[in-house]
Amino acid sequence: MTSSVVQGLPRWSLAVPPFALLILAVSWGRDLGAVLLILVCAGLGAAVIAAVHHAEVVAHKVGEPFGTLILALAVTVIEVALIVTLMASGGDKAASLARDTVFAAVMITCNGIVGLALLVGALRHHIQDFRIRASSSALAVMTALVTLSLVLPTFTTSTPGPTFSSAQLAFAGVSSLVMYGVFVFVQTVRHRDYFLPVLADTPEVQRHRETPDRRQASTAPEQGEGLEVVERVVGDDESLEDDELHAPAPSRQTALISLGLLFLCLIAVVGLAKTVSPTLESAVAAAGAPVAVVGVAIALLVLLPETVAAVRAALRNRLQTSLNLALGSALASIGLTIPALAIASIWLDGPLVLGLGGKEMVLFALTVVVSMLTLSTGRATVLQGAVHLMLFSSFLFLAVSP
User: Fold this and answer.
1) pTM of the predicted model, to two decimals?
2) What pLDDT does 143 receive?
3) Terminal-to-terminal C-alpha distance of the chain
4) What residue ranges do the domains of the chain occupy?
5) Residue 4: its pLDDT value, please?
6) Confidence at residue 220, expressed as pLDDT on a 0 to 100 scale
7) Helix (H) or strand (E) segment spanning residue 128
8) 3-400 CATH
9) Count of CB atoms within 10 A of residue 88's CB?
10) Running DSSP on this structure, what letter comes out for residue 346?
11) Where are the alpha helices (DSSP H) in 147-251?
């Protein structure tokens, strides 16, 4: 983060939120012609970039892992509102929209964002280190949340089809909220140090890189306990990254302004995504693709800010921050969506389809196994990134061609 960003917000970051909201106001409820579609896409892209910038300003003020948590929570809260709104106005056709969007968010974060961060980070820094305890605990919670909320409805017998009864949905909502709440407590209070970025030149990391065999033989406590909070990042442009990390923190007023602009940008991102969704639905129908593709497209658009932020962190050799963003977004998406749906089901008409099909269960099981193998090493190379991206490509391909 450059000194100009810390001392005062650049003009473009102040201009983008009202510009994007203006485009949203002009395009809301209208059929998008060619010109308006271009404006909506331009506003969407600008809002994503501005959201990432303001999230970095806030993160620099509050420190990790609070910065990544703020971005993940903000995006997810608005995403949940978007899902509930579309379901309320979509009728029976939107019965599976929540399931499709949440599962797409899990696959995008665990394979797309993680794979992209691993790949670009390894291409630049060869090997990147992260904390095993943080990533494995997030994966465990995510696996439990998806299984209880999206897999079990396929096998329950109280109601026909892949649905929960009212009591089952209430129990799933409470369980999801409790597990996510405990995870946030552990991440920000009890074991905050587990989720902090890793210093690249600690003796443990140097030993890891110089003698991989010895590193593999080391125990898990040695991998997690000796790593320090990131103070400096080494890389091809070490001096630039060092300046960014040691830049003075923004003032409280600047951070609060950035926080407000962050929420405005996220509102614009979700609103513009909703505006462009009818065009996406028309394109999906014209191509003869399944309705689930709409949920995938919505999740892709809404998760753009986290994707950009995770890639930028990986390029700066802060892979732990990238993993916090990706896995945290997956946890927030499930942990907040299911309780919200449990409450919204009181006035929503029609069935709420939550259970995954066989194809999706196989993809999820494969994602969990591969993620366990990736996150158990404490370091990342190009190979892990390529594998996760291929799983993500398989998910996209099978979504279009089931």
Assistant:
1) 0.73
2) 93
3) 43
4) 3-400
5) 45
6) 40
7) strand 128-129
8) 1.20.1420.30
9) 13
10) T
11) 166-185, 203-210, 212-217, 220-225, 238-246
